[in-house]
Amino acid sequence: MISIAFLGLGNRGRGYLRGFSRQEDVRVAALCDSSPPMLEDAAGKFPKARRFGRDEDFFAAGRLADWLVIATPDLCHVRHAGAALDLGYRIVLEKPVTADPMEMEALCAKARAAGGELLVSHVLRYSPFFRAVKGIVESGALGDIVNIAHEENVGYWHFAHSYVRGNWRSRAVAAPFLMAKCCHDFDLLHWLTGGRPCESVSAYGSLRYFKPENAPEGAVSHCLSGCPHVKSCPYSAEKLYLKKITPLFWGKAIAAGLPRAPAREDMRRILEHGNYGRCVFFSDNDVCDHHSVAMRFAGGVTATLSVSAFSLGFTRRIRVQGTKGELYGRDHAMRIHLHEFGKLPRIVRVRRGNPFSGHGGADAAFCAAAHAVMAGAPVDPENMTTIEQTRLSHQIVYAALESIETGRTIKMGGAIEIPGYEKNPG
User: Fold this and answer.
1) What's the CA gap between 333 and 298, in Å, rounded?
2) In 59-72, which positions are buried (b, 16+ CB within 10 angstroms) versus exposed (e)?
3) I need a labelling partner for 62 at 20 to 30 A (CA). Which of 31, 293, 344, 391 fits?
4) Pairing of β 325-330 and β 335-340
5) Which run of H or of E encompasses 163?
6) How many CB atoms lie within 10 A of CB 346?
């Protein structure tokens, strides 16, 4: 029997709890969250699990399980992972690890010294769509890879929810947007290039739109406090949370701070004065709303990442070009257009994963892969997002952040510092 403890029971933590607890050989040993509603809701399903409302009490109790799943806020990840390693836990850690390169190196060194396993949940690498892309690349159908163009469309409604009003709106409370949202994508690019070292990075990004000077005339601090634009503004909290305008069904519970979405009138009262009801032009957000990153990998392979708040849908597109062909596709479509030079084009249809799993089935696939590690099954280490694999892709993000701050192309291989980044004092 595999025993697992869970630290952090928000949206991501509860997803991992569902994913791992479905396995017949898993026992949920302990649950910890600072939110009483979240803790009580999870504990109701696992009455034999020990429960803790404070992380200090959880760690003071000693090692309670074989594995620990850490899904706490970004700025707590290194502290919690370090304490878990000290107790001898093997760890599944929610991404990102940290926006501080020195913290990353220190945690990697600690994990090596402890000899413990530390997996990072870059779930997209496990998605059926990107696994299919990887399979085509490795088959040699495209020849030698020359260039990858990757595009992440965040969705205007998703960006407003998470990165203007929500938990990732500011460096004061979370990792920078390029790290918090796109470390998935940098992991994919590093993986698809065959783990080649990245040699140089040049990046751009800014907070272009969600600022007070762009507020429409007469806008007020909260959408439901008499704003004259509440019916017309696409970012109106009324439209996003009280009407079925966008697929933000999962965001209502998060906005309310509850395990499930409250009744409509209760939701309205929460939005009238809460963070998720604020005008997107008068929030305390400071993260960039668009980025462009260019990378050169060893062997002359180049890649670009474009990410933007200003899209209708929430999807990723990718184009991989090689010496013998190219492929392109969109993850939500679950189809890959494959063009081998000199042959008729064909469409590779990807079988969807668990329809009830997030990220197009990737969350369930990640839990299955991590469970295989927990059970001692043989796995391919190059296809697992270990802390060492994550260290390499995180380094690309550090270089991109430095490039944005300094306006320079960053040569990889040396120490990377991010000007203006303040380490979490906790």
Assistant:
1) 31
2) beeebbbbbbbbbb
3) 391
4) antiparallel
5) none
6) 11
Q: Could you read off the pLDDT of 363-373 as tens digits, one per residue?
A: 888 999 999 99
Residue 162 carries which DSSP code? I
In the predicted model, residues of the chain with pLDDT beneath 70 are 353-357, 414-426
What was the pLDDT predicted at 282? 97
Question: Of 277, 161, 160, which Cα lies nearest the Cα of 223?
Answer: 277
pLDDT digits (tens, 9 = 90+) for 71-101: 999 999 999 999 999 999 999 999 999 999 9
Closest CA to 282 of 176, 210, 218, 216: 210
Global pTM?
Answer: 0.92
Nearest to 159 by CA among 317, 8, 285: 285
pLDDT at position 289 is 97
Q: Are 4 and 42 in contact (CB under 8 A)?
A: no
Amino acid at 342: G
Could you report how far apart the first and last alpha carbons of the chain are, in Å?
35
410 sits in which H/E element: strand 410-411
Report how far residue 154's alpha carbon sits from residue 282's, in angstroms, rounded to the nearest whole number: 21
On whether the CB atoms of residues 16 and 367 are closer than 8 A, the answer is yes
Quote the CA–CA distance of 278 and 284 in Å, as a whole number. 10
Q: Residue 246: phi, psi to the nearest 5?
A: -130, 165
In 71-192, beta strands by DSSP E = 90-93, 118-120, 145-153
Structure token digits, residue 146? 């020359």
